[in-house]
Amino acid sequence: MAASARPGPGVGELVLLEKLLGLPKGNKYGVQGERKVPVLQTNNGPGLTGLMTIAAHLVKQAKKDQLLGCTAEEKAVVQQWLEYRVTHVDGGSSKEDTRIILKDLNVYLEDKVYLAGNIFTLADILMYYGLHHVMVDLTVQEKEKYLNVSRWFNHIQHYPGVRQHLSNVIFIKNRLYTNAH
């Protein structure tokens, strides 16, 4: 399976992740297939394929395994959200798909700081990167409708090193209109 030369969106995210993890530049990425699945060319053996596989490899390479979860339950939850990212966020293309993703995430985050509960993980990083283009385009009213997603997203974009060159998404902290006269 040959990788094509033009990088897809996942490759850009992997470069951001490398920088966030403090890894030296120099990994060679490509993409394969219609869906532009990222491929990491390795020196020893076959290349690694898939955003989640490569991301987990980079986390281990940086010796930051805590980003994959500490307990068995946290590891499972991180894996669950990484799968959700690839199957739903990357696979969803319509406005209705996006609305369902935001609604599901909003309900899930109601009582959580991070996707894995109380710890910042790779799931938060890659969901943030995957949803950035969606959040940029939301109206103020839509951001208020998905308040838990907005709170989580704003928290993640201010986590040191995560946002990098991505645009800062603005969230209005006080309501413009009140019921008081």
In short:
This protein has 181 residues and is mainly α.
Helix run count: 7
The number of strands is 3
Largest sheet: 3 strands, antiparallel
Taken in chain order, the helices and strands follow as HEEEHHHHHH
Helix content: 40-55%
Overall form: globular
Q: Which structural class do the helices and strands define?
A: mainly alpha
Strand content: 5-15%
Mean pLDDT: 88
Task: Report how far the terminal alpha carbons are from each other.
Answer: 67 Å
Strand order of the largest sheet: 1-2-3
- Which stretches of 5+ consecutive residues score pLDDT under 50? 1-7
**Rg over C-alpha atoms, rounded to the nearest angstrom:** 17 Å
How does this structure look, described?
This protein is mainly α and about 180 residues long. About 50% of the residues lie in helices and about 5% in strands. The chain is built from seven helices and three strands; from the N terminus they run H-E-E-E-H-H-H-H-H-H. It has helices spanning about 10-20, 50-60, 70-90, 95-110, 120-135, 140-145, 145-155, and strands spanning about 30, 35-40, 50. Strands 1-2-3 form a three-stranded antiparallel beta sheet, covered by helices on one side. A hairpin with a 6-residue loop joins strand 2 (about 35-40) and strand 3 (about 50). The longest helix is centred in the middle third of the chain and has 18 residues, at about 70-90.
